Structure formats: C-alpha cells, structure tokens
C-alpha cells in the first residue's frame, strides 16, 4: 500500500508519498509561493531526510490545483518519478486544518463532505479553500479514495468548560465561536508515541505535549485524550510564537484601531505576521535569536525570555488541570532541536517533579528519548513529530474500516 499525503497551507503545499509496508518515504516535496511569479517546486526522492533536491522548478503556480497537477506528473516522470502509473497510489491522505464540530474523526472525502467543509471556510478562510482545491483535483486525477485528517480532531474531546469562551452564549450557537485548537495531528501522534515509549496504554497516560515550532501550541492530555489546548478559534492564541503574539488583552485590538486608524484586518495581520519573537526582536527563527543573544542583543534576549515564560505558565496551568502528569513532551522544530529552550523552559521546576539531565538534553538524536533526571515524578521526553505519517496511518485505518 502506498499513500500520498497532501498538506495544503494558505500559499503552499507539502507532499509525501509513503510506502506503508516499511514506512519508507518514496518521495516528498514542497510547492511554495503559490499565486506569485516567484513560485517554486522542490522535489526529493528517498531518503527524503537528505538535503539533496533531485528536481527544482521556479515559475508561477497560479493555484494549488496547478501545483498539484505538476507534482502528479513528476511522480510518474521517467527520471524524477517513483511510480510508472498513478494507479499505483493506493490512497490519498489530506491534512485539513479546520474540521470544527463537523469532522471529529478522519473522514472519507466525497462530494457531500466537500460541501460541508466549504461551509466551514468562514472559520478558516486562508486554509480550508486550498485544502478543498487539493481534495477536488486529487479525486479528478486519481482513481483511489481520499481521506481528510483534521488538525482540530484531537481537540474535539475537550470538555465544555475548556472549549467555551466566557462570551454571550449565542456567539457559540450562532457563529461557532469556541476553542477548536490546532496541531492536533502532531499532539495525538506524540502522545501515542510517548505512551508507547513509557510502556503505558495509550488511553492511560497523562501528558503535557508542547509542539514548539514557528507556530507553537501546548495540550493537556488526560488518559490519552485532549482536555485543553492553548490555541483557540484560530491559531493566534496561546504562547508567544515566531510571528504570532499569542494571548493578549482582546481590548488591544479596539484600542489600536482607535489610536492608529488601522482596520481590523490590518491589526489582525499585525498580530499574526509581525508580532511574537519577530515583533520583539526582528527575528522569528530561534537559531537567529540564539545567535543574536550570544552577541548581547537585548531584544533577542527579551523575546527568548517571553517565549519561555509563556510556555512555563501554560505548563504550570495544565499541571493544575491534570493533577497527575506522567510526562512532559517536546516536539516540532524548537521542541525537538533546541536544548537551550528546553533547559530554560524546565528550569526550577523540581517542585513539580520535573528536572532535566543536562547532558542528555544536549545530545542530538532523531529518535524518541527521555532527557529527564532519573527518579523524577514526571518524565521529560523529546519525540520527533511526523504529521505526514500520522495522516497516512489514519487514512489506512479509515479505508480498512470502510
Ligand atoms: P517548525 O515550524 O516545526 O518547522 O519549527 C521551526 C522553528 O524551529 C524555527 O524557529 C527554527 O529556528 C527552530 N529550529 C529548528 N532547528 C533548530 C535548532 N537546531 N536549534 C534551535 N531552533 C531550531
């Protein structure tokens, strides 16, 4: 069985073609800056972990459909392809961002499902339309079934007191305003891997999972199920991120509109794209922040301090939510690779039963591992996330059950 995973962002998409028998990624790639004349396609063949790009094309890809059609022709290309015919693709797995309360499980893509997803575009105007485009073109080009796996699914188990906002209730009933959460495929994947690593049943672990990348979110997991998460109606809320501000006083938006004359859309863009680490220091990449800190850059130092502080506060609050925590899990670009952030986040947490073994924390590995001091009440794990594999597995499970 070979599964093609398509992950559409607002102006880009990633793809991975996975042989499910040995979980080998046969090829993978990225189409970026869709809709601009500086579009690019990069394509790699196994082993996709290497930096070797076997094919690159720089031109305009007018739409996601345009880019996906080009990628499909590459898959069967005599030089760069990995299959002879598209019929060798057994199934297609799509990453969906916003499934809201309609899609709380991986779902077979069919016309009725697409119409429902279209209705949800109002909640995710940048992400759902390209995802729908991807689903439509794949069902035209491929004879195999497609399955959608949503970022919001894992968080659908949150209790009402965690997902509701303290706003007039009809905002929830009329407009669907509530906490949905994001990065759910990653939180679920690392939660399951953590349970396996600890030798505990997947429905028996209590965890705090920290997905720390350019976008960051934290989830509280009780008995393997999400009970709270830091992102909300949109991915803007929660901890300080690369370019997003995270939690701020909602009155700031109105105050800024009055003081600066900016529109709500301009202010929203500022909160999403010009804030967070970038707003504080001019840099959104954590590696640049560390390099600048070493040179004594005060803006970078404050940005790093605020990033870690917001995460520590969230971990503390989720500790209170869960009562018992088996492990604190770090994943994604910063969570997996940045020992400096992990050490700063876990500093002086001994009273919570959390302490790092600094030597283990400093070691590099692509495998799941513990970086905790022995004998602490809470294990600290670094678990590489793999959203594409998680989507491919979920896709296979839906098709097996159908
Ligand atoms: P992601 O969104 O998961 O791809 O993560 C991107 C973030 O991970 C960026 O802020 C990168 O600077 C950060 N990152 C990746 N590798 C490292 C590393 N070795 N050390 C520190 N930060 C890293």
Structure description:
The chain is of the alpha/beta class. It folds into 2 domains: 149 residues, 2-Layer Sandwich (Nucleotidyltransferase, domain 5); 188 residues, Nucleotidyltransferase, domain 5. It contains 15 helices and 14 strands. An 8-stranded mixed beta sheet has the order 5-4-3-2-1-6-8-7, with helices on both faces. A 6-stranded mixed beta sheet has the order 11-10-9-12-14-13, with helices on both faces. Strand 10 and strand 11 form a beta hairpin. Helix 11 crosses helix 13. The relative contact order is 0.11. The mean pLDDT is 96. It binds adenosine monophosphate.
Would you spell out the secondary-structure blueprint of this structure?
Blueprint: E1 2-8, E2 13-19, E3 24-32, E4 40-45, E5 55-58, H1 64-75, E6 91-96, E7 107-108, H2 111-119, H3 128-141, E8 146-150, H4 160-163, H5 169-175, H6 184-198, E9 207-212, E10 216-222, E11 225-229, H7 251-260, H8 264-273, H9 276-281, H10 286-294, H11 298-322, E12 327-331, H12 332-337, H13 339-346, H14 358-362, E13 369-370, E14 379-382, H15 387-401
Parallel strand pairs: 1-6, 6-8, 9-12, 12-14
Antiparallel strand pairs: 1-2, 2-3, 3-4, 4-5, 7-8, 9-10, 10-11, 13-14
Helix pairs in contact: 1-3, 10-11, 11-13
The structure holds adenosine monophosphate.
């Amino acid at each position: 069985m070979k599964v093609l995973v398509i992950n559409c962002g607002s102006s880009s998409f990633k793809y991975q073609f996975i042989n499910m028998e040995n979980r080998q990624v046969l090829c993978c790639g990225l189409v970026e800056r869709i809709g601009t004349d500086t579009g690019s396609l990069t394509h790699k063949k196994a082993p996709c972990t290497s930096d070797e790009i076997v094919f690159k094309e720089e031109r305009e890809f007018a739409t996601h459909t345009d880019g996906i059609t080009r990628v499909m022709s590459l898959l069967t290309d005599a030089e760069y392809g990995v299959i002879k015919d598209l019929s060798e693709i057994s199934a297609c797995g799509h990453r969906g961002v916003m499934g809201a309360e309609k899609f709380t499980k991986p779902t077979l893509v069919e016309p009725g499902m697409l119409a429902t997803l279209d209705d949800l575009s109002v909640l995710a105007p940048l992400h759902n339309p390209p995802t729908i485009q991807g689903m439509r073109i794949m069902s035209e080009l491929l004879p195999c079934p497609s399955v959608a796996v949503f970022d919001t699914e894992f968080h659908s188990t949150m209790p009402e007191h965690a997902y509701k906002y303290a706003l007039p209730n009809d905002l929830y009933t009329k407009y669907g305003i509530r906490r949905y959460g994001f990065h759910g495929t990653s939180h679920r994947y690392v939660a399951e891997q953590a349970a396996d690593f600890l030798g505990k049943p997947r429905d028996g672990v209590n965890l705090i999972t920290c997905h720390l990348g350019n976008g960051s979110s934290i989830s509280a997991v009780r008995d393997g199920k999400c009970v709270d998460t830091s992102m909300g109606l949109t991915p803007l809320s929660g901890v300080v991120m690369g370019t997003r501000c995270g939690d701020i006083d909602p009155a700031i938006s109105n105050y800024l509109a009055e003081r600066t004359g900016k529109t709500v859309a301009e202010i929203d863009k500022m909160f999403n794209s010009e804030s967070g680490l970038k707003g504080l220091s001019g840099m959104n990449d954590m590696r640049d922040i560390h390099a600048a800190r070493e040179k004594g850059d005060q803006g970078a130092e404050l940005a790093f301090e605020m990033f870690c502080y917001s995460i520590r506060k969230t971990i503390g609050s989720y500790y209170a939510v869960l009562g018992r925590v088996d492990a604190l899990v770090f994943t994604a670009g910063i969570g997996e690779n940045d020992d400096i952030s992990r050490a700063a986040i876990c500093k002086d947490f001994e009273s919570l039963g959390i302490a790092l073994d600094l030597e283990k924390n400093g070691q590099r590995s692509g495998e799941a591992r513990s970086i905790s001091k022995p004998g602490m009440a809470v294990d600290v794990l670094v678990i590489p996330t793999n959203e594409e594999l998680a989507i491919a597995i979920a896709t296979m499970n839906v098709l097996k059950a159908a």
